[in-house]
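Need DUF4252 domain-containing protein's 3D structure for a figure. Predict it.
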Amino acid sequence: MKTKVFIILLSLFSLFSYSQTKDNTSVAGIKKTLASFARSLQTKNINTTVELIHPKYFTITSKDKMQQMLNFTYDNPYLKTDVTKFIIHRVENPEKIGNEYFSVTDYSIRMNLKIDWAQLPVAEEMKQQIRQSIIKQFGDGNVQHVQKGDYYIINTKMKACAISADNKNWKLILLEKNQKPQLMKILPKKIVEKV
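Structure prediction for DUF4252 domain-containing protein:
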């Protein structure tokens, strides 16, 4: 009798350990993909950044448009953007929905944004509108204007959904509230509700 109980306990422990290892491996893979994404933004390697985006996203925004937007933001002589800090706060254990695995992640980015006003001859009123636009997009408490050097420090919390067909190779879709209607077309409702 004691032997049977011992074997059952050992089997349960092994099953639990295997399950935990599998989850930890998946979460580690997602973190690795997020770190690659951050590194590609820091080094302004736009092609790598785009390759880390899940192909589903390109059904609502073309790959070319995404590349143009990233080039405008990260490789523009009039707009200098530097990602100075990237922190992963939380990665959900992947959940299988249909034929794919999904995991919602929370992370934050700190970046410096400097606009070369000398190259963009704009009036003071236009500068104020741009400043208001930055504050509106990221939130007043997340934007700091540094007078000396005339640049902005932006701290922003973000979400992404990691997606995998095999629970090993992960691609990302950024989850933004203003894109909820488009995201509903490509992601399960359960995932979009977490935005």
